[in-house]
Amino acid sequence: MERTLGRLTEQAWERFDDYPSLFFEGRWYHSQELAERARRVAGGLAGLGVRPGDRVVVMMANCPEVGITYQALWRAGAAITPVVFLVSHDELRHILVDSGARLVVTTSEVLLTVQLAADGLDVPIVVAGDAPEGTIPYADLERADELPLVDRAEDDMAALMYTGGTTGRAKGVMLTHAGLYRASQSSQQAGRVPGLTRALIPLPLSHSFGLLTTLVGMHTDEPNVAVLMRWFDAKEWIRLAAEHRIQRCPLVPAMIHMLLAEPDFGRTPLPDLRYVVSGAAPLAREALEEFERRVPGVQILEGYGMTETCATTAVNRPGDRRIGSVGKPLPGYTVTIRDDEGRALPPGEDGEICIASDSLMLGYWHAEDATAAAMSDGELRSGDIGHLDEDGFLYIVDRKKDLIIRGGFNVFPRDVEDVLAEHPEVTMAGVVGRPDPKSGEEVVAFVSLVPGATVTPAELVEWTRERIGRIKYPREIHVVDSVPVTRVFKTDRKRLREMLKELPSPTS
Q1: Contact 271, 241 (CB under 8 A)
Q2: Locate the AMP-binding enzyme C-terminal domain: which residues (predicted)?
Q3: Distances, alpha carbon 362 to alpha carbons 267, 308, 313, in Å
């Protein structure tokens, strides 16, 4: 069977009769309506000169047109280049130039950023929503004739996704049709529970986790309903989850923390919610336990993946969960823990997580050196530190590049963050290292607190010292209104380091 995303979407459209499959901002969208629109948009894109293999940037706030555009581009044989709508115009300009984008599709909310980024470039702009002069209305694409499915090879590029770029310019990750097909199919099979068909989607569909979630829904064997949020808002999430009797939902840890900080969370009954899949960043055990305490009957299933692995690698399954782990590797993925010399380590020993799979990226776009540094002998070196237990469950310790070396001892920021998160007045913590002439690096934490908190930084220092010992505990703790996160809701350590530089150095 041909494993291309154009074929997958075609099969998904044909599998079920017409039914209301998507709810967005007060309106139901039917499955065949969405399919017909995608076929016409594919024709409209071809009319604008989009050809097989072309890259098309899709930078849109969440809306039905995001999925329609993805499916239309795969139908036309092009590769999608999704961009999270929170990027700056400078970041977007780099992506437009580096990818050689044929055109960009956007929504009116972020049009100004797109216009600034595309200034002086020969990149047409298609706008879903109010389209000013000089841009192309999305509705014009839908007036075209339906385009027949363009055949592509399984190893052709289906998506060129740019990494976050928190340590430099973002790199394009080349993902194939077959790789995304297999990854989403394995994810669907691992998480399948018959009858759980109602999902709430708050993730940016332009993030790899959001894209994977979209593709997983195409493998289902029973009609599924998705409630889509334009962007995440804790109060609105609670309202939609209750109103639509949501049964499952993907979240990232920052969203979970925002929900826990919302007074109504736990007061509004959510009796139908059974599973939350958490990914993209580590989740503190205390947050997991508090979420499950407030929503009886729900289980949080942590998973792990990278853009370079088609957004997944391992996940806890319904009925096969180990709290604290990110689950077992999915079918088609092999995880090996290696030391700095590349030797495989036994269960229980920490080392770099290395991943082998047919769903690995082809490489980084126009970056052979970076590809060679990340991949060798069919394995991807993740840059993450972790270990496997005797039963094959994977545990993430931290990012290798975020490691703090204090007095010759390794300190993983997550260890410190997890302890700080245990404090009842701390909502979120972020930890980085400060260069120090005596110890090499010193551990510094930034924390946000619950409303009305009275705990002092000195008391939090003592709290951590009592729990993780004299090597790891932070010598500095700074209270901030909110711990910064990246546009995909990961702790923004780059911004924390910038904030640290703005603070006076402590006296010795």
Answers
A1: no
A2: 416-490
A3: 47, 9, 16
Instruction: Say how many C-beta atoms besides its own lie within 10 A of residue 113's C-beta.
Output: 21
pLDDT per position as a tens digit, 326-371: 999 999 999 999 998 899 999 999 999 999 999 999 999 999 998 9
347 shares its domain with 291: yes
Write the DSSP symbol of residue 401: G
How far, in Å, are 243, 379, 399 from residue 334 at the CA level?
A: 40, 9, 19
- Domains identified in the chain, total number: 3
Domain end residue (candidates: 385, 400, 415)? 400
pTM recorded for the entire structure:
0.83
Structure tokens, 213: 């979630």
Q: In what order do the strands lie in the sheet with 79-82?
A: 136-137, 125-128, 103-107, 55-59, 79-82, 157-162, 172-176, 363-364
Examine the fold and report which residue of 159, 178, 197 is the final residue of a domain before the chain moves on.
178
* Cβ proximity of 209 and 311 under 8 Å: yes
Q: What is the pLDDT of residue 408?
A: 62
Contacts by residues 337-342 (CB-CB < 8 Å, ≥ 24 positions apart): 337/386, 337/387, 337/388, 338/381
Residue type for 436, please? D
Tell me: do 21 and 80 sit in the same domain.
yes
- Entry field: residues in the chain: 508
Indicate whether 20 belongs to any domain.
Answer: yes
What domain range is 22 assigned to?
5-178
What pLDDT shows up at residue 1? 58
Tell me: do 21 and 60 sit in the same domain: yes
**CA 241 to CA 456: how far, in whole Å?**
36
390 and 422 part of one domain: no
What's the burial of 86, exposed, middle or buried (CB within 10 Å: 0-12/13-18/19+)?
Answer: middle
Token pair of 476 as six digits: 């500095």
Q: How far is CA 418 from the centre of its chain?
A: 21
* 247 within domain boundaries: yes
CB of 246 within 8 A of CB of 240? yes
DSSP E strands in 283-340: the ranges are 299-304, 314-315, 328-329, 333-338
What is the pLDDT, as a whole number, of residue 167?
41
**Looking at the structure, do residues 282 and 350 belong to the same domain, yes or no?**
yes
